[in-house]
Amino acid sequence: MTTTPVAPTSEFKPLNIGPMEVWPPVVLAPMAGITNAPFRTLCREQSGGKGLYVSEMITTRALVERNAKTMQLIHFDPSEKPRSIQLYGIDPGTVGKAARMISDEGLADHIDLNFGCPVPKVTRKGGGSALPYKRNLLREILREAVANAGDLPVTMKMRKGINDEHLTYLDAGRIGAEEGVSAIALHGRTAAQHYGGTADWSAIARLRESVPAHVPVLGNGDIWAAEDAIRMMRETGCDGVVVGRGCLGRPWLFKDLVQIFEGEVDYARPAFADVARAMVRHAELLGEWIGDETRGVVDFRKHVAWYTKGFSVGSELRVKLAMSSSLAELTETLAQVEQTQLWPESADGPRGRTSGNNRVVLPEGWLDDPYDCARPSLDAESDTSGG
Question: What ranges make up the beta strands (E) of the chain?
Fold first, then answer.
């Protein structure tokens, strides 16, 4: 453990999203196939329940149609308060119906709207990070969501734009504020960048300057350690941070974040034995949530490389861990790794996808007029949710 002095907590304020007060001003970013109830549980346990933890992306069509998988994805543990759902939708009417359903049935306490997904199968239909280019469509979706959400706060998450030649974030932020969103989160990359290169924090600062002060602006991108969150807030003036890939295989990052915002940091530097216990617990929670141990362990496989990053595990054991199909097998294999290994410096830093400089696939003629009334194809939105 290493202790680092930081600024007093009076420098930072709680994040106010409608009636919700979030302390510290830290939000878990929605990540498809990752931020399900088990992972949110792990992160909340580390933070002592502090912060805001958002579900993985839920498609409005699937929610309105009560798709079985989607209804499982919106299940929250009784200890989760407040409950936060991220919606992805391309049709204003369907988004409105989904927001009303969440409000009327008490399914969540907060709705976040996704306008940042850079995946080609989404952008080629005009959805995700392609959608804010159509300013009028964006406005209609936001208007329907806010009007139908009742007393629930509605927020939006977006990217800088499609590429450097087609930036949309300042217009989108202005429209969001005009339509009554309770907060705006900006990932400082374009869709073309995907997750490559370095996030442009200066764009977060420009958005904060251009949006009315009563609308909180959250920064997202390249928060790999607790100090990055503090640095982002100081450099950009943003009101809070959104943490995504930095917590992959490292749910204890949220413990670090709580501590740094509360004045003193005793960083979590778990030995491998601690990491192994967290891995087994994660897989166990997944099995309980899915209702099948084998499926839970299989779903956990994608987390193995993130948890073991930097540790001396060996290629043979890594393969075996990634092929585990039972808790007993996972536990037995983990026991074969040297348990006393200390947290390696190489375990810090970037995690997850890093690809960038991609050509963004868009519908034909999508960039011709940012104000026309074009609608994405309805099949841009799947009838299921998750990743």
Answer: 3-5, 15-17, 20-22, 26-28, 52-59, 84-88, 110-115, 154-159, 161-163, 166-167, 183-187, 217-220, 240-243, 264-266
Tell me how far apart the alpha carbons of residues 76 and 73 are, in angstroms, rounded to a whole number. Answer: 8
Rg for the chain, CA atoms, rounded: 20
pLDDT given for residue 303 in this prediction: 97
pTM above 0.90, yes or no: yes
Instruction: Quote the CA–CA distance of 270 and 276 in Å, as a whole number.
Output: 10
User: Residues 43, 117, 238, 247: which is the catalytic one?
Assistant: 117
| pLDDT tens-place string over residues 200-222 | 999 999 999 999 999 999 999 99
Contacts of 292 (CB under 8 A, 6+ apart): none
Listed by start position, the domains of the chain span 16-265, 272-342
247 is catalytic: no
Q: Which CATH architecture has domain 16-265?
A: Alpha-Beta Barrel (3.20)
